[in-house]
């Protein structure tokens, strides 16, 4: 009897995580087209870590506010094992190791088509395929909060 109760609890936790994941992704997508603003956390302007901070908060989950701090949480994920909900981190500046940008994997369409949403400094909040020369060269790590 105890074994069946623990199975029920783990099933409920899995369902909760699934609903949280859907909420995080749909909230992030609701910001598509929002202009970039350093330090921004609303529809008038959003930065990359703010987008994820607000999106996770909408699902009742607290994550750190900055991309560097977000890159230290959750569990490690290999690039080829990315799945929706994973955070992907990039070094966009001159320092090749310093995390300066973050996005959220929204969809895995195939081995060479993994979509992530992020706040681009030039285009605002957009969804992009991570499998481009630009992003694969700047990719540094991925973390899983779900």
What does this protein look like?
By secondary structure, the protein is an alpha+beta fold. It has one domain (2-144): endopeptidase domain like (from Nostoc punctiforme) (endopeptidase fold (from Nostoc punctiforme), Alpha-Beta Complex). It contains 4 helices and 8 strands, in the order αββααβββββαβ. The chain has helices at 2-30, 48-57, 67-70, 133-138; strands spanning 41-42, 45-46, 75-77, 87-90, 101-110, 113-120, 124-129, 139-144. The strands form 2 sheets. Strands 3-8-4-5-6-7 form a 6-stranded antiparallel sheet. Strand 1 (41-42) and strand 2 (45-46) form a beta hairpin. Helix 1 packs across helix 2 (48-57). The two termini are 28 Å apart. The model has no long low-confidence stretch (mean pLDDT 93). Keywords: Hydrolase, Protease, Thiol protease. It comes from Marivirga lumbricoides. Pfam families: NLPC_P60.
Strand content: 25-35%
Shape: globular
Q: From the coordinates shown, what is the CATH architecture?
A: Alpha-Beta Complex
- The CATH homologous superfamily corresponds to endopeptidase domain like (from Nostoc punctiforme)
* Uncertain residue segments: none
CATH topology, anyone? Answer: endopeptidase fold (from Nostoc punctiforme)
Fraction of helical residues: 25-40%
CATH top level label: Alpha Beta
Count of helical regions: 4
**Number of structurally distinct domains:** 1
Please count the beta strands (DSSP E, at least 2 residues each): 8
Mean pLDDT: 93
Please state how the strands of the largest beta sheet are arranged side by side: 3-8-4-5-6-7
Radius of gyration: 16 Å
Domain NlpC/P60: 18-146
Organism: Marivirga lumbricoides
Pfam families: NLPC_P60 (PF00877)
Protein name: NlpC/P60 domain-containing protein
